[in-house]
Design goal:
Layout: H1 2-13, H2 17-23, H3 26-42, H4 50-74, H5 76-79, H6 89-92, H7 97-119, H8 121-145, H9 149-157, H10 160-169, H11 174-197, H12 199-204, H13 210-214, H14 216-233, H15 236-239, H16 245-267, H17 273-298
Length: 308
Amino acid sequence: MAKIMDNTRASGASMSWRDYYELCKPNVVMLMILTSVIGMLLAVPGMVPLDVLLIGNLGIALCAGSAAAVNHLVDRHVDQKMARTFNRPVAKGRVEPMQAAIFALVIGSLGMALLVVFINTLTAVLTLVSLLGYAVVYTLFLKRATPQNIVIGGIAGAAPPLLGWTAVTGEIHGHALLLVLIIFAWTPPHFWALAVHRKDEYAKADIPMLPVTHGEQYTKLHILLYTVILILVTMLPYITGMLNWLYLLGALVLGAGFLYWSLALMFSKKPSVGMDTFKYSIVYLMALFVVMLLDHYLLPVPTDYLRL
């Protein structure tokens, strides 16, 4: 017991700002902010006001970081059982649960205050709903309740481009919802590829991810099916006149790449193919939104589309 206490004190003594930074899941938040920024830029023909661009994304990032910190806090016992997460600050004991809770409350409150005071109430409300959807509905309930956890819970993580759009316009536009739909369709094949690679760890932690409850082949088939759905969904911005041929070309090329990795995951015996598919899915989403932005500025469509 004394040794455990000594180890705990040693872990606590090594706590640093990097642990709090890690609590925010910076890589995930940066990807979310990329889609939020591009959601803002797609909402208007020209440039977004600088104060909205900076303060709006700071507020959204702080709220996303708060939700991530809650995830670290709630999942600390699960994280201890998984190689991918066992060294997280709360799981490892470098940050106490109460400290993580206070940190999440402070940065979440600060983010909400920025959105309410400097942006608009609609964006603040949608951000709060997204935060609660991830931190409470997904992390506390869905993750442990159903193998469809990532499908249902994915709607919370798909919100950033809508938040960016409403921060600029103050209204929910159909084209903003298309961006949400794209990330919503992208989430299952993205996350299930990781779950296939980490199947044994999820089983050990008693988390009912699809590969654990239904097997790898069943999951790989669903990754392929969702990839086809994703490719079809990414056609909608072109079909509805939101974006032009450059986006269509980019979406088809990137979609072909995703389809290749989905098929590779299904038929290849290479041990790393699950992780390779997961990594490609991240590059895919980033590249898709960058292509949207290039199309928006290089091949602008009539501004009437913003009123549709």
